[in-house]
Amino acid sequence: MNSENTVQESKSRRVFQCARRSVLKTPGKFILAATILAAMLGFMLLPGSSVSGAAQGQQDNDSESTIQRGFAMAPVPLDLRGKNRALVGKGSYIVNAQGGCNDCHTTPNYAPGHDPFLGEPLEVNAATYMGGGRHFGPVIVARNITPDEHGLPGGLTRDQFITAMRTGIDKDGSILQVMPWPVFADMTDGDLNANYEYLTSIPSLSGPGSRDP
Ligand code: HEC
Q1: pTM of the prediction?
Q2: Which residue pairs, CB below 8 angstroms and at least 24 apart, start in 191-194?
Q3: CA 145 to ligand 1 center in whole angstroms
Q4: Which atom of ligand 1 is nearest to the CA of 178?
Q5: Residue-wise pLDDT tens digits, 147-182
């Protein structure tokens, strides 16, 4: 009886100790997890926070440099008459450095002797810039998105352009099949607006890609 009790007792002590250990361990684990998490967060935030600290004050400079860069990389002369200069510069940056519009809407993409994929010094083909014409299968052709005779890129009003970029819905109501509009759909109004403004300022081409296929 006695010995049984002792066994019982030592058993329950073991259980108790075990429970105590795990209780003790739990905050330990928690602290460890919290430390790792904090370290990870710190790691993720550090580069950002060092930028964001400065960025608050530098935001204007940053967007100005995006605008300047946009102007510097525009491969064609821009007609700024009646245009919002900042939007044009920003739009150039979006179209030329981010949107990859040139890949499909300029054919051929690069000036003769300037194809970077052949190890040649890069020069976008100004002669056909955004004139469209790249074929995707027998039916689909990238559109000419240069300004038409009324100055509308691809013959689209600002609203039609934004709708096409957001929803893929063409002005005839069909859904664009190649154009990567699902990627562009999340652009801000400001970015889409800048994108449009830039396209109004590039030279008009009759080009191989019809505006109204
Ligand atoms: C992967 C190739 C590709 C890229 C990249 C691309 N487009 Fe297109 N885009 C097309 C094709 C092809 C069409 C014609 C119809 C279709 O997709 O079915 C088109 C159509 C359009 C239209 C015509 C819509 C209409 O309603 O007539 C506009 C505007 C346009 N693209 C703008 C852009 C802009 C601006 C960019 C860059 C931000 C861009 N595209 C990038 C392939 C592309």
Answers
A1: 0.75
A2: 191/90, 191/94, 192/161, 192/162, 192/165, 192/166, 193/87, 193/158, 193/162, 194/87, 194/88, 194/90, 194/91, 194/94
A3: 8
A4: 17
A5: 999 999 999 999 999 999 999 998 889 999 999 999
